[in-house]
Design a protein that fits this description.
By secondary structure, this protein is an alpha/beta fold. The protein contains 16 helices and 18 strands. Helix content is about 40%, strand content about 20%. The strands form 4 sheets. It has a 7-stranded mixed β-sheet, sandwiched between helices. It has a 5-stranded mixed β-sheet with strand order 1-3-4-5-12, with no helix packed on it. A 4-stranded parallel β-sheet has the order 16-15-17-18, with helices on both faces. The two termini are about 35 Å apart. About 40% of the residues are buried.
Amino acid sequence: MEINLISERYKNDRVPAFELSDVQKEYVRRFAEKCESGEYSFRKRECECGKGDFEVIAQKDRYGLPVETVICRNCGLIMTNPCLDDKSNNSFYDGEYHYIYRAEEAPSEERFEERKKEAGTIIDFIQNHTGIDSGSVLEIGCADGGNIAAFAEKGYKATGIDLSHTYVEYGKEKGLDLYCSDATSFAQKGQQFDIVVLNHVLEHFTDLEKELSTITALMKDTGVLFVAVPGVKYLTFGAYERDFLLMLQNAHIFNFTKDTLCQTMKKYGFDSIFANEAVYALFKKGNPESSFSDHYTDTISYLKCVEESGGDVDTLMVHRVGSKLSECKKGDVLLYGTARELDALVQQLPDLTAIRGFFYTDRKTPEEVVEYMKCNGIHELVIIDVKNDKRIVGRISDLIEGSSIRFMSVYRELF
């Protein structure tokens, strides 16, 4: 594989990207010893697109462990390669994972309550985009059951499974319906659920085909799958301190953008209901489709921009919108946003060829903007308005229904 590191910071020097706690140092040491002794084994993997034309972009993870992160030059999917085999992976999760990743010596009431509070966002997201406000829920990778507790309090019949005996027992003592099990073993019970939750779990799967086939069996035909994974392009708005190296860890097999996640899920028969760059996404059962678009150039360009910008928000915003404009025809885009945001953006965009013009949100209503676009044959709308985004996006969606107009809301993609 060709080596083309994001920068020199990503070389294999065994130096962590931040100060580790004593707990983390101890379990990083244990993990490294098991790898070096052969107790943990690794395997190389092919890309989900079937091509596997990889380029190495990092040689270590954030803990300083020698982990190679690669990007597929055919589709743009980012992954750890090689990765732990299934037996080693299961042992890692039951042994070191929580202590390295969470820096926790044991489950705690504080972290349980944090998870429970954070679950409110997940529940709202599911209800807003599906209308499902009751029924049965299964969370795969539930840890101590904080999310399950939140669903239960909202009236759902909630069940959770996890590979860590310690965390499952902690949640069971709180009266939660938790099991120490993998999804395949649990599926043998024959139960099906209205909602299956993978909250920062899918990126850990070593065998997507096996796991997603199992999840299909666990879902009712009318069921939905909620997926949250670290969004590569969410770095723009502060995730991981806008540092891609902080996103990398040995436990993450995949690092997704919205696009690479959706086309990977489509391969295994999941149709997207809604997805953003956070990445929060909802899927329903559909027909498998193995057609992969190429997101390599866009993704690697974005990562280079993140590194070179030092995390500057304005620079990253210019890159994001500029990438969208490069895909559009001459004069086929209208920008719509606040004066401050639009003026700052337009002054920095390197190519304005695709832009027909722009309107400020305090001077033109969504109705006037859509009417102008229809009368002038403009097909692309880019909305940049953090304050009024939700209201504007909802109204624009209604107004363009059935038309050839498409829109991208930068903030909706991210939030």
